[in-house]
Amino acid sequence: MDQLIVTGNGALTGEVRISGAKNAALPILAATMLADGPILIDNVPHLHDVTTMIELLGRMGVQVTLGERMQVEVDPRGVHTLAAPYELVKTMRASILVLGPLLARYGEAEVSLPGGCAIGSRPVDLHIRGLTAMGAEIRVENGYIRARAGRLKGARIVLETVTVTGTENLMMAACLADGETIIENAAREPEVVDLARFLSAMGARIEGAGTDTLRIQGVRSLHGARHQVLPDRIEAGTYLVAGAITRGKIMARGACPGVLDAVLQKLREAGAEVTVHGEDIELDTGGRRPSAVNVRTAPYPAFPTDMQAQFMALNTVADGVGTIAETVFENRFMHVQEMQRMGARIQVEGNLAVVTGCETLTGAPVMATDLRASASLVLAGLVAEGDTTVDRIYHLDRGYERIEEKLGQLGAKIRRVRK
Ligand code: UD1
Questions:
Q1: Is residue 166 in contact with ligand 1, taking CB distance under 6 Å?
Q2: Which residue's CA is minimally distant from atom 30 of ligand 1?
Q3: How far does residue 165's CA lie from ligand 1's centre (Å)?
Q4: Does the model's pTM come out above 0.85?
Q5: How open is the CA angle 261-329-189, to the nearest 5 degrees?
Q6: What amino acid positions are annotated as catalytic residues?
Q7: According to DSSP H, which parts of 83-227 are helical?
Q8: Running along the chain, 419 residues long, what does each successive block of 10 average in pLDDT?
């Protein structure tokens, strides 16, 4: 198993190029199954979760060819198996995204329940309820979701909670349904919008992407298309925090600043000068220690839960006291204990963490528990005295492309070792 050894090495400076968004690439790959013809996707990040999705599609009979420069060619015409097995789904919850497309296109699907997860119970009941409202017959048995339908029927669905993959699953299914589907309280995340753009390029009729009401007129079939995946806002945010926490100066290239407002605002509150140049974002701390910030996570356009752990790291060395309220997931504070082992002063009560900044952290062996928690431990390591060894970094590899190389280019001392 690989580990990362991070050695505090002062301010990070320089440029980093932002990869395609994992959370857009995954639903887009799943959506290819809706089409009758070949598809070309550009800017697909090279990540473990993407490989898992490609493997899952491959087992179903979808042909996926990896081209050069992050290009992926998909031919969905050979689908022969309408199932997603537990062994793959358990490694990646986003596998649930094949449920909507399989059911809509082939009238049948068997997808393993994702099961528990380090960051909370994360049920998929809203996916199931929405598809049932569209006429599917769904049974949950032996750990599997077994779904059948003739042609799905348009329906009006009001989502009880804002769910990103739930919205995506239902939107994909609705594209081939008979009649109009209205999804209310839909997720407004940029990745949902990117998926809608891709579906529209295949011939889908979707209105309202980016608002909380989606209107989808079902069509008989979807055709092949070409699409470029939008940049990863969470990756961009993570590198900007790396700049802020180390009192450095960073340019994030190709970062799509328009979808990062809430994060950029918090970086400014932390005292950094943040300037947008077209698609690039420049962060300059002027060598100053960050100020503590208060953060409250909520669905887009509010502050993303996927940036919560990184801002916790920032607060551990900031000037003052900052609070972090996590409202999207229960139990998403597993990084706290590890940061405390590095000397951080954090008190947790329910979904609120109160962080009192200290002058410096000390390096320690720490264990990653989920993707963003892992990133936050690497960030903490960048400002700790001595070595921080981050274990279980397969979590990081699920969501960050070549993280040690990218941080290394910015001046970080970070290396990967095999245990
Ligand atoms: C997606 C993102 C993940 C991000 C999260 C929130 C992908 C692949 N993953 O995860 O990185 O952290 O959005 O922005 O895009 N819920 C239910 N019932 C459901 C579905 C969800 O109660 O059927 C609840 C969840 O438990 C959670 C909340 O809704 O409390 C939001 O979860 P959701 O938006 O569905 O997260 P994911 O789509 O799994």
A1: yes
A2: 329
A3: 6
A4: yes
A5: 35
A6: 117
A7: 86-89, 99-106, 125-133, 164-175, 190-201
A8: 92 98 98 98 95 96 89 96 92 94 97 69 88 96 93 98 97 98 98 98 98 98 98 98 98 97 98 98 98 98 98 98 95 93 97 96 92 95 96 90 95 93
